[in-house]
TrEMBL record:
PANTHER family: ACETYL-COA SYNTHETASE, ANTHRANILATE--COA LIGASE. It is an enzyme of class 6 (ligase). It comes from the Bacteria. This is Benzoate--CoA ligase. GO terms for molecular function: ATP binding; benzoate-CoA ligase activity. One of its GO terms (biological process) is secondary metabolite biosynthetic process. Its EC number is 6.2.1.25. It comes from Enhygromyxa salina. Residues 32-401 form the AMP-dependent synthetase/ligase domain.
Amino acid sequence: MRSGASDPADIKIPDRLNMAEWFLDRRLEEGLGDKTAIYYHGSGPGDPAREVSYAQLVAESCKVTNLLRELGLGIEDRVLILLPDTPAFAACYFGVLRAGCVAVPANTWLKAKDYAYYLEYARPKAVIVDAEIWPAVDEARKTEGRHTKHYIVHDRSYAATPEGTVDIARACAKLPSVAETEPTYRDDVSTWLSSSGSTGNPKCVVHMHHDFVWNTIAYAQRTLKLGPDDLTLSAPKLFFGYALASNMLFPFSVGGSCVLLPHRVKPAEYYELLERYGATQFVTVPTTISKMVAAAESKGAAEGRDLSKLHSLISAGEALPPRVYRAWRDRFEAEIYDGIGSAEMFHVYITNRPGDVKEGSLGKLVEGYDYELIGDDGQPVAQGEIGTLVIRGGSAGLCYWRMRDKSRETFHGDAVVGGDKFMVDADGYFWYCGRGDDMLKCSGVYVSPVEVENALIGHPAVREAGVVGVRDADGLEKTMAFVELGPGHAGSEALAAEIIAHCRELIAAFKAPRKIEFVTDLPRTETGKIRRAALRELARGGA
């Protein structure tokens, strides 16, 4: 295994560890009780904007702990959290951990059948759910509710909750604002993180208290160098592990602050929000950056906005196209630190960083992590060749819950064997090539769909692109591209030929798309990744 510059043993994690104490209670010990931890934007008249101090957040989390214990929950009991980005999410998350229970945050944009899956798969003893999401959960529990004893509802307008549920606001109002923290160990389970796969049901990765603290030190504190003056704002929501850390755990760990937005936000609207709150770091994904740039160019969305406090964007989820990076950097001073992480490894382990950004790359290994690139034969590949990433570090999860075979394929102690293909250049920068099952083999050579997409996006008419393989009449795999055009451009055979010719000037001819299909919107997952399985279906229909 090849390593980052520092020894992982340099990160010391205490044997007794509860994340509620490490991320929250220590801030009170440091005299930061009165400092604002959360700036809440609110969703309307019944859910107003407000500020929550560290002392208030600790108190509210203690009330949640007391409520769970009053309901009979204890150490290792699982609690499904279905809340939008509100102060209640933070209070409930830390309240669950303080009680020694296991938090299972899940997507709040799902359907009843998806919640039925979670009720059976996670077998939570309690569910904490927002009133707006309750109808779907109520429907789900009628078929898969036998394991769950309590449904705890949070109504942001403070209306009465449905009969048979626990009204969290009214129940907590009667409970003490102090609670004994369960003296968990670093190796006790704290949180299950859902994978962001584009097909099928989620896999939940089982993580310990240790994992979150380890990566926070290695990535947030040492690599990004977050400090108490930082204020983060996020496009992804807290139920994604990426945002849970970047827009809550990371700023809290250094006495910083975060902005919580409970609703979906249009890309153009982020400029006003970043200015209003004076955010120093914006947590986002490449798709959002691209749409923000387009809104600034075509609608003047950034005109007159003061973003002087914004020093950086954190980007993950998919590779950031060089054109999008340049378009942002040419217009704004804030740097973009593109990186990659996973639910399996909790968070980012390869990234660009302050003072060290290489356009188009994912940067270098976060110090403390080790890696290896292996070929299809399981042997290490030569420098400069494409291989499957094996990543090792102290934030690796234990397993996928109730998936023995898949767990043994993926988790090997602190090492995680993923499905991502990379190339590492002579200077140690990582270049993302795609998922293993997305890679194409044209003329007997691996072709990265990301490389072809970047070539496509380099054409001025192309806003977004997705590339998949399709078999020609001889049964040979060729590249096919689905393209979203920018404003002022219309699809035509002539434009398709022009775009293909443009690609042939940038990449080898055998890699260039043989066919282009113009689409209004590319199919994407909720994390912004292109759903290549959906594109392959379209390609088969149009081949």
